[in-house]
Amino acid sequence: MERLRISVTAAIGAVGGFVSTAFGGWTSAMTTLIIFMAVDYITGLMTAGIFKRSKKTENGALESRAGFKGLCRKGVMLLILLVACRLDIELHTTYIRDAVCIAFIANETISIIENAGLMGVPIPAPIIRALELLKQKEEDNGS
Length: 143
Prior knowledge:
Layout: H1 2-22, H2 28-49, H3 64-91, H4 95-118, H5 125-142
Helix pairs in contact: 2-4, 3-4
């Protein structure tokens, strides 16, 4: 049993080391992004599973396909972050990685607040105004 524990610990350490090296090291912004992604996914599950108010499905309830799409989106976000990290390594900078992290953290924050609102959590007015401004800016840039 002790050998299995050591083997599993070594495997996890090796994978973690590889991932950290691929990203050129690990920063607090990257940790924050991972945390916000997890919180967004959990609040999305709660919105659909408990409150049946998801905007991702017709009836607002949980749907495995919608959940899988969400995980795929988050996976692609991490791949884009990986590309940004590798660009920074090649250019000997850190601002590309940081900018991508901040942009994705802002996106996850918006989604978390939207999920909370759908669950009936009262959202302070300044946050609602900021969200409306961000959405308007996104719509203006998209058209």
